[in-house]
Design a protein that fits this description.
The chain has helices spanning 58-65, 114-125, 176-186, 192-195, 258-264, 282-286, 314-323, 326-333, 363-375, 391-407, 418-426, 445-451, 463-472, 478-495; strands at 37-42, 72-74, 80-82, 85-90, 95-100, 158-162, 165-169, 219-225, 229-234, 247-252, 269-270, 291-295, 300-306, 338-339, 381-387, 410-416, 432-438, 498-504, 507-511, 514-515, 532-533. By secondary structure, it is α+β, with helices and mostly antiparallel strands. A hairpin with a 5-residue loop joins strand 2 and strand 3. Helix 13 (463-472) runs antiparallel to helix 14.
């Protein structure tokens, strides 16, 4: 069952192959220049603002959830905290009880109810809507293809207990943290009393989503051009309290523009997963007197994925692990802003086990493995795809290729834009590919189970790994869960279907005029309604 897990990655990507449904027609300036406006700079285009077209990139998630809230969110301490839900509980890792906040209301004053949650899941599971982005197929009553029967008005695995309480039952044991991360964070709840009468086949193109008039979040969308900006106005009826800042703007800029924008005061906030400050600008940004900086939790993994079918000799894959000088790359190119680990888990994960150790740079061993594999007929040529937008790792890839040329392995670096990289990755037309990937530290299961499967980018399969991942979902003791992930990481360290080049601790920044705001990988926008502009 797990080998058919659909992809639900938390990839921090700016998918420019994004759905083009919501194409704002305005040519307005990038910022609303008033004393009551706050400007957020992002370096990824905003692929969509439609909550049923979530592509799971962080820029889309945060931009959309300013308008439509999720059930729960992760805070800076990597704890799930309530949004529309007060909490989500389970006693058996099969049936999950969602307790909605008693005060949660829509902007028109109508309470947020269990019917809204059911309606939203029905939309995701509707064949008329035709989504495949979220793995709702894991819910009892939804087909293995992710859909209900056409015209379904209920899902057997979702049961409403009262207006503020409902249960969702999954087909197999699922850890609470996985349920909260998948469904709690990424399903943005929709108003059934507004959209329930709209034919589901019309929902993806329904004009109402261009400027929703009834929302649960702190800000209304007022204007946008997805390639350049999104403008928001405060929801004065926000159930957690009217936002103190009236206007909020997301402006799409290049990384090269961020330093000067912070310096001039035109940028008020850069959050780590939405805006990429150039590493060479970190010291200059930290030196600005009008800016506060925050080193984000190191969770973004510069992942190197190896297609084990195209690179079947484990000695070649092991040679890559031994022959990449990761410490030099971290020190010289990443300027020390991060850490080195093996496999998937970063040190911020509660399931990280230092007993795994880190494979030391050993070019002599790498050369010996390459020579041994070549003597047995293995190919010593690899094609490696790299995201052209990740300028730091483009440099790293060139450095790696030059090193391996001396060790007897030819690496052909293909630098392509992100859209092309995703096409190549999803068609498995690569030997090696690299991309920044964030595995939620509290829920590594979702991404790891997909990546290490017949459907995942690595095409790597191991029965013991699959069993350990499966067992992690039924356990509640942290030590036992950690032991299962250690087994997984040890297998990855041994068989090398992926390599963690480094874990990046990205820099976030805020203007000193913006108060009660700390940019971090998780939790930045939870209290957005409490942000203030200094007088």
């Amino acid at each position: 069952m797990r080998s058919t897990e659909k992809r639900f990655g938390r990839i921090i990507l700016s998918l420019t192959l994004v759905l083009a449904l919501l194409v704002g027609g305005g040519t307005a300036a990038l910022a609303q220049e008033t004393p009551q406006s706050v400007n957020i700079a992002v370096t990824d285009t905003v692929g969509t603002l439609h909550p049923l077209l979530m592509d799971n990139t962080e820029v889309v998630k945060y931009a959309t959830s300013l308008t439509f809230l999720p059930l729960v969110e992760l805070n800076r301490g990597l704890e799930f905290v309530g949004q529309l839900a007060e909490e989500i509980t389970t006693e058996d890792n099969l049936t999950f009880t969602i307790h909605l906040n008693r005060d949660a209301t829509w902007s028109d004053g109508v309470p947020v109810t269990s019917a809204d949650v059911l309606f939203t899941f029905l939309c995701w599971a509707s064949p008329e809507v035709g989504n495949t982005g979220l793995n709702v197929y894991a819910i009892e009553g939804v087909g293995d293809d992710g859909y209900t029967e056409p015209g379904a008005t209920e899902i057997s695995g979702i049961r409403i207990l009262d207006d503020k309480t409902l249960t969702i039952t999954t087909k197999w044991e699922t850890a609470l943290y996985t349920f909260e991360n998948n469904y709690g964070r990424y399903v943005l709840i929709l108003p059934e009393h507004i959209l329930g009468s709209v034919p589901k086949e019309q929902l993806l193109t329904y004009d109402w989503f261009n400027a929703p008039t009834v929302i649960s979040g702190p800000y209304f969308i007022t204007d946008y051009d997805l390639n350049h900006y999104v403008h928001y106005t405060a929801n004065e009826n926000y159930w957690q309290g009217a936002p103190k800042i009236k206007y909020l703007n997301i402006n799409v800029l290049t990384s090269a523009q961020l330093l000067s924008g912070l310096q001039s005061g035109e940028i008020d906030l850069i959050q780590q997963t939405m805006g990429n400050i150039l590493l060479e600008d970190y010291d200059s940004v930290r030196a600005l007197s009008n800016v506060n900086t925050h080193a984000g939790t190191p969770v973004t993994n510069q992942s190197i994925f190896i297609n084990v079918e195209n690179a079947p000799d484990v000695r070649i894959r092991q040679a890559l692990l031994y022959g990449i000088d990761r410490e030099t790359i971290l020190r010289e190119l990443v300027l020390g802003n991060g850490e080195i680990v093996d496999a998937f888990l970063c040190s911020a994960s509660p399931y990280y086990d230092a007993a795994l150790g880190v494979t030391a740079y050993d070019p002599e061993k790498a050369a010996a493995l390459i020579a041994e594999a070549a003597a047995d007929g293995a190919s010593t040529h690899l094609t490696w795809y790299v995201n052209s937008g990740d300028t730091t790792f483009v440099q790293a890839a060139s450095f790696i290729a030059a090193q391996f040329a001396e060790l007897g392995l030819q690496i052909d670096i293909k630098t392509v834009d992100l859209a092309t990289l995703m096409t190549v990755a999803n068609s498995f037309d690569f030997d090696v590919m690299a991309v920044q990937y964030t595995y939620a530290p509290v829920d590594p299961y979702t991404d790891v189970a997909w990546l290490l499967s017949a459907d995942g980018w690595t095409l790597y399969q191991d029965e013991a790994v699959a069993q350990a991942l499966l067992e992690s979902q039924s356990l509640t003791d942290q030590a036992e869960i950690t032991a299962r992930y250690l087994l997984v990481d040890q297998a990855v360290q041994r068989d090398v279907p992926m390599i963690s080049a480094y874990i990046l601790s990205a820099l976030g920044a805020t203007s000193t005029r913006l108060q009660h705001t700390v940019p971090d990988v998780f939790g930045t926008f939870i209290n957005v309604h409490e942000w203030e502009i200094a007088e």
